[in-house]
Amino acid sequence: MLEGTEVHERLERDFRKDSTPASFDEVVEMSKSEATLTRECFVMSQKYGIRGFIDEIWMTPDEIVIIDDKPGTKAYPSTINQVRAYSLAFKDMTMDKRKIKCCLRERGTDNIFWIEEFDENTEKEIIFTIKRMHSLIDGIKPFMATKNPNKCRSCRYKSLCKKSKL
Fold it and tell me: Which residue range(s) make up the domain with 21?
């Protein structure tokens, strides 16, 4: 995590050297007529109860590309859901109708190793997942134990899981 934080900070410093300061709304509006790039963009959706920092967003008049940097090149379901949730929050904040793509990129490189269009089906899937997570946190639905004890060991909700053996 420390290495990841250092890489993110270095990339942000490098980005700021050549960037022009602008508000989120200004960048979104500008991107409707010219390509823009922004880093470490805070997004939040009160409607879905989510928030986070998008590592990088490429915006053109035709599309928006939401990128999350990861230390490896494996697209885990959790990292896919994270970038999908960022895309949902971005869409909810902006009400933008442009096509959105979700991407995972190998940290410190230009290697995009996973990409998908954030279409209607993907949006429905992530909304379902977010609602499920909220129902778990609120104690409405039960946790489902994993078969991997290593995941249980590090899970912050293990005390709430009836099947956890830890």
Answer: 2-118
Q: What is the pTM of this model?
A: 0.81
125 within domain boundaries: no
The CATH number assigned to the domain holding 88 equals 3.40.1350
pLDDT 10s digits, 29-46? 999 999 999 999 999 999
In a domain, 140, yes or no: no
- Average pLDDT of the residues in 131-139: 90
Over the stretch 61-113, which tens digit does the pLDDT of each residue have?
999 999 999 999 999 999 999 999 999 999 999 999 999 999 999 998 999 99
Structural domains of the chain, count: 1
User: Smallest Cα–Cα separation from 8: which of 87, 107, 111, 109?
Assistant: 107
